[in-house]
């Protein structure tokens, strides 16, 4: 066995380029469906690395697919690169992009030996837009044998356990009037929002455990001496599964209907995307990832209350219902600073971020390498892989996609 076949995938020779790519994304944040520069920079990185690249993938202007190899088995490394409005890369999607692209690049030398095609699928609009769900419906993930990505967090947490979530846009339409001279002529759309939020606050006592309801009013009126004619907001409803989500969402909608009924305004309660699903973890891939992570010096012993980023909803959950997948969280060591805070955006560049890129890309690549090396029909098993493994197949009890 040659030195090449006994080696394990790594990213040391590509790390400087990956860090530069991540820092460029971080310095130029783009929100959901607007990731035009991010898509271009991702395509350029993949083309430089020998991948064949499709831009505007499946008709989505900010989606990209890069492919390397021509094997019968296919692994997908999933890129996210959208940022948060007003917060930039406070969820660390710049690091997700660098880890997934880096892992794909690291897998190139093994593609032929493992009868593998390496796909990088760069997906828009994870932060509320459901980009992966739209791509899934268009067939983007249909032919994958395994889908991998890792997400930055305050601490390491290997298993994704996200809530299913519905994203809704709320709009009340009333009638404007002078607030002092003719208030009785108005229909106050802001009062409708107040009543709805009071109803939601009272509803929370009766919500099942493991549910979340939260949102923000984005339009509240124009002037204090004018009865607000239009108010708007965005509201999220979360539950343990899609099956539990829809009845809960209906209860939330009734709270907004109460606001409209009480104030004589009209309500529009409109989905912003398809609901995000709970996650189905591929246990064999997760075991491989966890074992290599421990060997690399990652630790999973942080207190449970610090690991709860693994409950955050993701449209990767929908992908996991059709393709064997994992979505581990990799720690920046920054707790109590956590995702969706300005301080988290700050730690998504620098020394800790660079280690996350190096470790995350390496771990995703090594997970794919061992997963397919253990599959019947693959080439020789590289050093560092477990000796024998169960035959390849879908998770127990799962129907074909």
TrEMBL record:
Source species taxonomy: Bacteria, Bacillati, Actinomycetota, Actinomycetes, Streptosporangiales
Region: Disordered, residue numbers: 379-401
Domain Peptidase M20 dimerisation intervals: 169-259
Source superkingdom: Bacteria
A GO BP annotation: folic acid catabolic process
Cellular component terms (Gene Ontology): cytoplasm
Stated name of the protein: Peptidase M20 domain-containing protein 2
Homology family: Belongs to the peptidase M20A family.
Stored Pfam families: M20_dimer, Peptidase_M20
One GO MF term: para-aminobenzoyl-glutamate hydrolase activity
Key words of the record: Hydrolase
């Amino acid at each position: 066995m040659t030195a090449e076949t006994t080696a394990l995938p790594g990213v040391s020779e590509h790390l400087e380029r990956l860090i530069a790519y991540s820092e460029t994304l971080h310095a130029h944040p783009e929100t959901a469906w607007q990731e035009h520069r991010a898509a271009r920079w991702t395509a350029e990185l993949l083309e430089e690395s020998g991948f064949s690249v499709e831009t505007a993938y499946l008709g989505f202007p900010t989606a990209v697919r890069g492919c390397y190899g021509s094997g019968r088995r296919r692994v997908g490394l999933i890129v996210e690169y959208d940022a948060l409005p007003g917060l930039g890369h406070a969820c660390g999607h710049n690091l997700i992009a660098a880890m997934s692209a880096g892992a794909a690049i690291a897998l190139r030398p093994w593609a032929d030996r493992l009868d593998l095609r390496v796909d990088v699928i760069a997906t828009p609009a994870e932060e509320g837009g459901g980009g992966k769900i739209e791509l899934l419906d268009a067939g983007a993930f249909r032919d994958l044998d395994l889908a991998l990505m890792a997400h930055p967090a305050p601490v390491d947490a290997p298993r994704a356990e996200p809530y299913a979530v519905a994203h809704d846009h709320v709009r009340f339409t009333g009638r404007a009037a002078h607030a002092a001279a003719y208030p009785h002529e108005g229909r106050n759309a802001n009062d409708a929002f107040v009543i709805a939020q009071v109803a939601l606050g009272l509803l929370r006592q009766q919500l099942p455990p493991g549910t979340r309801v939260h949102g923000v009013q984005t339009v509240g009126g124009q002037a204090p001496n004018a009865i607000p004619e239009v108010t708007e907001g965005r509201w999220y409803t979360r539950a343990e599964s899609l099956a539990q989500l829809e009845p809960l969402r209906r209860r939330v909608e009734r709270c907004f209907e109460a606001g409209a009924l009480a104030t004589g305004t009209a309500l529009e309660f409109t989905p912003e995307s398809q609901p995000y699903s709970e996650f189905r973890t591929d246990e064999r891939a997760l075991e491989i990832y966890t074992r290599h992570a421990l060997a690399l010096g990652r630790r999973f012993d942080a207190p449970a209350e610090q690991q709860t980023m693994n409950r955050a909803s993701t449209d990767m959950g929908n992908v996991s219902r059709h393709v064997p997948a994992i979505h581990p969280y990799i720690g920046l060591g920054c707790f109590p600073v956590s995702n969706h805070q300005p301080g988290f955006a700050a730690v998504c560049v620098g020394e800790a971020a660079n280690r996350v890129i190096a470790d995350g890309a390496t771990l995703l690549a090594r997970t794919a390498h061992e997963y397919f090396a253990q599959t019947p029909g693959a080439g020789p098993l590289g050093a560092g892989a477990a000796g024998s493994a169960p035959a390849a197949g879908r998770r127990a009890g799962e129907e074909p996609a």
